[in-house]
Design brief:
Blueprint: E1 14-17, H1 27-54, H2 61-90, E2 94-96, H3 97-130, H4 135-138, H5 141-167, E3 176-177, H6 184-190, H7 196-229, H8 234-262, H9 271-295, H10 298-309
Parallel strand pairs: 1-3
Antiparallel strand pairs: 1-2
Helix pairs in contact: 1-2, 1-9, 1-10, 2-3, 2-9, 3-5, 3-7, 3-8, 5-7, 7-8, 8-9
């Protein structure tokens, strides 16, 4: 690395991403495994999106949000994994300073949209189960678009704030990141200047991006559970809970790993755990989402079968 002065005081021009394993003999194994994981994730999520688009039964608000969530999952994994595979293929571990910040911005943008989409899906379930008589007016096409647009606006503001804040820090070396993608906790550890304000900003925005949505989701499902328990028919209760179980599973996985990664300020360096959480955030969660949403949903399964076989839906 050749230090080079920059206008903002940064002397580091590139970072070294050590990746998941430091042994070159294992790079080919990691490459194959993550290439398969990437192809599975992209294929699964695009299949869900295609099913939502072509199946008339799935032209509902819940599946509108699910289709958007599938696009976000493809984006999240595409921000991190292809660049990692490219470095493994080229046997090159370095990433330019600008590319690192760009990856950071888009990862937080797409993950942030995920946060609010999951909240919108919880609100949709609340209206469908607790307010069925006014559901069609409260969750019309305009409201759906406003919720998605608001998700993008909030996530963009969050990602831009973090990117601008991290660009003001001074990096003078070392420049080694013991992970496979650029993220805030690892960059904080490399900064030569104080990161106290950045860490407080991360904590505050994490509360807005995760804490508030989690509170809204929790509140929605308290009302949903109370409404479902009032249903006298056991079959009716089972059907109502089945429409919510997939969403709750995804919420638990997404927010659980995210909170562990970003809200443990002042903790010591935990490289191996950081990598494991990073794999969950960028690979496992997006790869499992299509499976979770299709496993117990016969409408999605039927639509996926028609997409794969090329059959048109019945009129």
């Amino acid at each position: 690395m050749q230090p080079k002065p920059r206008a903002n005081g940064t002397s580091v021009t590139e970072f070294i991403l050590l990746g998941l394993v430091e042994t070159p003999e294992l790079w080919s194994v990691v490459f194959i495994l993550f290439l398969l994981a990437y192809m599975t994730t992209v294929g699964g999520n695009l299949s869900i999106l295609a099913a939502v688009l072509v199946e008339p039964k799935l032209h509902t608000p819940m599946y509108f949000f699910l289709g958007n969530l599938s696009v976000m999952d493809v984006g999240c994994i595409s921000v991190t994994i292809p660049s990692m595979l490219g470095r493994l293929l080229a046997h090159k571990l370095t990433v330019p300073y600008g590319a690192c910040l760009t990856q950071l911005f888009f990862f937080h943008l797409l993950a942030g949209v995920d946060c609010f989409l999951l909240t919108a899906m919880a609100y949709d379930r609340f209206l469908a189960i607790c307010r069925p008589l006014t559901y069609s007016t409260r969750m019309n096409h305009t409201v759906q678009r406003i919720l998605v647009a608001s998700s993008w606006a909030c996530a963009f503001s969050n990602a831009l704030t973090h990117t601008v804040a991290i660009s003001t820090l001074h990096f003078c070396g070392p420049n080694i990141i013991d992970n496979f993608y650029c993220d805030l906790p690892q960059l904080f550890q490399l900064s030569c200047s104080s990161t106290q304000i950045n860490e407080l900003l991360l904590f505050a925005l994490s509360f807005i991006m995760a804490g508030i949505p989690m509170a809204l989701i929790f509140t929605s499902y308290i009302h949903v559970a109370a409404a479902v328990l009032r249903i006298r028919s056991a079959e009716g209760r089972k059907k109502a809970f089945s429409t919510c179980s997939s969403h709750l599973t995804v919420v638990a996985m997404f927010y659980g790993t995210g909170m562990f990664n970003y809200m443990r300020l002042g903790s010591i360096k935990l490289a191996d755990k950081d990598k494991a959480i990073g794999i969950f955030n960028t690979v496992i969660n997006p790869m499992l989402n299509p499976l979770i949403y299709s496993l117990r949903n016969p409408d999605v399964q039927a639509a996926l079968w028609r997409v794969l076989t090329g059959r048109r839906p019945a009129a």
